[in-house]
Amino acid sequence: MKKILIYGDSNVWGDNFLTGQRIPDEKQWVNILRKDLGPNYLIFQEGLPARLAGNDEKEKKHKNGKDSFLAIFRTNAPLDILVIALGTNDLQIKYNKSSESIINDLLWYTNIIKESFADLEDRQKYFVNNRLPQIYYLLPPNFDYQNNAKDVLNAESEQKRQEIIKYFQKNVANSIIVDNLPLFNDGIHLNYEGHQKVADIVKEVLVSNEK
How many domains does the chain have? Predict the structure, then answer.
């Protein structure tokens, strides 16, 4: 059985921001993926609303992605596949982060896994058959910065998103691009159709890489 950890934000968690509630389990893309991949895969869903790739949240520090990552990784280890699905919240106007800073925060996850692997005790305990997990980056999806999400994200946020995508396309293997996805009316969170589409895309990538 292959074990997958999906570490992400509210779109991994399944947030319907307009109601303030979580969408039904069966509508969340992680659970759709779990069903579609079948019994040979075990998926750990680790999504948190408003989670950052970096550690830029000063008040609600539980949202800082780096701070909680290693504990969650080790809790679910050993893993065959790690999916990092972060970056959207870092693009918010209030954080004023550059695309370079966000890229570096995303790459940190690969680097910290490699550091852990280099530790012989960690390697024996937390890694499958003495090897690194496959690491995938699910890059920030589209958002409606012109209308419904304009108080949170703006045109500069979108420009930075495109710069992040371009960098990962060119430099990082196993980068998954999701775009033109249907959203709830808040302009940020995936609606039910959007969750289905992400599940389909991620499944196709994972299965194709198994061949």
Answer: 1
